Amino acid sequence: MYGVESSFSLALLLIVAIFLIMLALFNAIMRKWLRVEKPKAFSNNHVNDKHKKIDWSIRIFGITMMVVGYFINVMRLPQEPYLLLEPWFLLLVFLFATEIVRAIMERKYAKNPNAYLYTISQLVFLLVFLISLFTTDFFGFL
User: Fold this and answer.
1) Are 7 and 142 in contact (CB under 8 A)?
2) Contact present, 105 and 84 (Cβ < 8 Å)
3) How far apart are CA 81 and CA 83, in angstroms?
4) DSSP class of residue 110?
5) Residue 7 and residue 15: Cα distance in Å, rounded?
6) DSSP state letter for 37
7) pLDDT for position 96
8) Which percentage of the chain shows pLDDT scores above 70?
9) Where does residue 98 rank: exposed (0-12), middle (13-18), buried (19+ CB within 10 A)?
């Protein structure tokens, strides 16, 4: 039993490391190709005040939905939770929603005309990676 848990942790660490390396390489290549400046790490890069208000509205709604979804799924039997109210699912949905809003705002208001293409390419990369993880059963690691 102990060996199974340690191999799971190692496999998960390996998948996360591979993802982070691939993401860093992809972002560097796309930034250079599209001539987009590197965004600040862990900061809110809002295009304008309208974008900031929409982004915060999505965040507040997402957190509210996670709390409501948690209470609804706790009341149900553990074998029958609603997938659409699971926190990981809601997090992915609202992550994609905020990135789509960012791309729309960059398309309309950003100084660099390629900024929205960079955002969309990041979103497509993440989507392709997640789909490939789930369809290949985590590349056979898990």
Assistant:
1) no
2) no
3) 6
4) -
5) 12
6) P
7) 95
8) 94
9) middle
CA dihedral 9, 14, 19, 20 (to 10 degrees): 90
Which residue blocks in 1-142 are alpha helix, DSSP H?
2-34, 49-75, 87-109, 115-135
Q: Say if residues 99 and 123 touch (Cβ distance below 8 Å).
A: yes
Tell me how far apart the alpha carbons of residues 74 and 20 are, in angstroms, rounded to a whole number: 33
CA atoms of 16 and 27, how far apart (whole Å): 16
Token pair belonging to 97: 């929603």
Pairwise pLDDT comparison (140 vs 106), residue with the higher score = 106
pLDDT confidence bin for 41, thresholds 50/70/90: confident
Per-residue pLDDT at 52 exceeds 70: yes
> Is there a contact between 119 and 27 (Cβ–Cβ < 8 Å)?
no
- Tokens representing 79? 């074998």
Predicted pLDDT of residue 53? 96
Distance separating alpha carbons of residues 140 and 138, to the nearest angstrom: 5
Whether the model pTM is above 0.70 = yes
